[in-house]
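Repro:
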Amino acid sequence: MQSTLGKPVALSPEVPRPRPPSPRRRSLPQNLALFGLATSLSLLAACSESPDTDSTPTGDAKNGAELYASMCASCHGNAAEGGIGPRLTPWSRSYSDLVDAIDSTMPQGNPEKCDAKCANDIATYLFGLEIDCDKTRALPQRLRLLTRREYRETVKDLFQASMAASCDSDADCDVAHESCTGGACTADPCNLHTFVYDAGATSPTSVHVAGSFNNWAGTIAAGGWPMQKIPGKSLWYVKHALDAGSYEYKLVLNESTWISDPAVPETVGQFGNSPLTVSCGSGGSGGAPVGDPTKDFPAESRPSGFPFDDSDSALVTAVHVDQYWKAASLLADAALADTVNLLPCDLNVDTDACAGDFVSDFGKRAFRRPLSDAEVLKYKGVLLSAADKQTGIRSVLRTMLSSPYFLYRSEIGEPVGDGTSRLTPHETATLLSYMYWGSMPDDALFAAADDGSLATPEGIESQARRLLASPRSRPVFETFALQWLGVEKVASAPKESSLYPEWNDALAASMLEETRRFVSHVAFDGSRKFDDLFLADYTFADATLAAFYGTSAPSSGFDKVPSPPDRRAGLLGNASVLSAYSYSDQSSPIRRGLFVRRNLLCQEFPTPPANAATVPPVDPKATTRERFDQHSSDPVCHTCHQYIDHVGFGFESYDATGHHRDTDNGKPIDASGDMNDVEALETGTHAPFTTLHDLGTILAESHAAKACFAKQTYRFAMGRLETAEDACGLTDLSAAFEQSGGDIQELWIQLTKLDEFTRRK
């Protein structure tokens, strides 16, 4: 294929290098194509010669891997599998040709940045990417820092697990003070306030809360907080997080009758408003901490191309250290409120033995493994040497909760004699529990680790299926889905109020809740099939979102409802997705197109060059499509935007908030699109579509979309961006996902069967 302006130069697939027979080798890419956008004619000539297999790599592969990651991966893929730039291995020419190609042309636009040694090291790394998939596969040994959400759930389980009642919904708990979280009734954090209304013999059709916190919204559509009725009771309730401060509010029945809260005797002001003061401190019940101990923890960094919060590249800063100690102190103080439930024995009866039992019991759960004899003696000494028992217990708790053994998840393993290590049973239990529940192992998982069950594939699969079947797995899957889709930001996304007056926090929260409930339903209650994520003709809505969509509202709260006709495309029709990938004042074909390419197809693009055009200025005479058509016709931009814009244009029937529209700047919307090169870039295929349902059908039938979903699941579970070491596992995982018919739950089970799940090196 000849070079054209703005298009990568590519060669026809070449014959692989001659190799001796191999039982099963998987080379990451299958075709050869040159690196960049403008490769010299001399290199093209060199590549037409006969293969030279005598050249031997002489560079530093480790340094080459680091250089490749920093200079090449954004175009050619993290594992050289191809992106906007072509696949790079197997290289069927000589080693020296590859070095020359890199040295003379790369990185794109700045080849001086990579000198001869740099090119030699990268070429050596690329030549070593072929992997024998029949050999035992192992990932690097590592420690994984708890994320904020993992920390919160871990301390909740650490202090509450034995006391929490089981539940299916909030209605099974003390709804005024508890919520059903992961199948257990857990105390609400201090800032989560529950409004409860007992309607008695009356039967209002709707009840909502209006107050100083939501601009006294007179209707639910205007931002009132809708309360939901507990089935079989006259109680209505709604929970909302509030900052510390003083508020006033009223309850609104049937969006017409305003009443003071009957549960609050006092009223204030001439209108008889009900007062509310939120003031959070420490304390708790059952030894459980109150509030969010992670509220001041630094946010997790997310490497480029990694949408999840659990990257294993997390580093501890001085701020982390200060906050970990502060949280450990807060938790220890709260736990001392109920030492009867905290201690497994009576310290006053047999102090020495009880101290040892407490250290062993609490330490095993905190460190997620049995303590050594030396550790037990050390912590017991801390307790017994204190001025009094309370101080000793507090010191042990603070020390354990600020220990690396608590803050990090260990994946080191024990050597098995073939150059790799296998995770210990307790490390395996920890990996399973955080993958499925986002928290520490429960008693059954600890028992399976203790009795050796987790040393076998059958034992691992049995526990994996048990954990996945529990309601506690739903919140973790929902977290995965929201982070995969990149819609978490919707809850705090600003929109221009003069253009979108209906936008408010309550509407944004409803959008996020719709997506959360939809993905959970598909994976656990519905077909469990990947296709339904893009083809479902139903969604979940409350009165707020139903009003926004212009459809009938459910009888109360959030419930499953038929999707409006224009949104029968599963996730693609969710307002959370449409608004997340827009600007505050306009839609964005670029952001929406990149969402499909990156999040749904795992097709990566390099960072735009410094001279790339910005968002085209608003033209009152042009539609968004017309403006961006001009932008993407620029030869400099065309290389990437040929894959982005015409996908994004297919979303133009929706404005920056995700609201359906038929016109833009007074002109009819053209929402036709082209999902070109859906299976792989540079394949020259086209897939025109005119509706989101059409696009959803294309994605549902795409092998690349299923492989990307498997890859995103792998990334989330393993906490890392894939490298060459992950190639075989990812291919096997994708194949198993296809063979299961796209069964989402089976994908999460099959992942635990990979060598890489429990092998390290």
